[in-house]
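Q: Got a minute? One more chain.
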Amino acid sequence: EQVRLAQNYPNPCNPTTTISFSVAAFSQVTLEVYNILGERVTTLIDGWRGPGEYSVVWDGSVYASGVYFYRLSTGGERISKKLLLVK
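A: Always. Here it is, folded:
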């Protein structure tokens, strides 16, 4: 089983960015965005996904400029990456 979380594109973003990931087996998937203080600002995906590649667009137009982190959780695995929102 391999879970992959790609770097968002574009990065820095203004105001939207695409986050891509892949899962190798049917599993519970959660994709969340956090601010620099570690507070969850939104949940982009929360549900079961089958094997494959997925993409989701995050619209940061209602959030302040700054550094954010997005985290992919699948079963016991968690992967995080950093993104920069510049307005």
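A: The chain is about 0% helix and 65% strand.
Q: Perfect, thanks.
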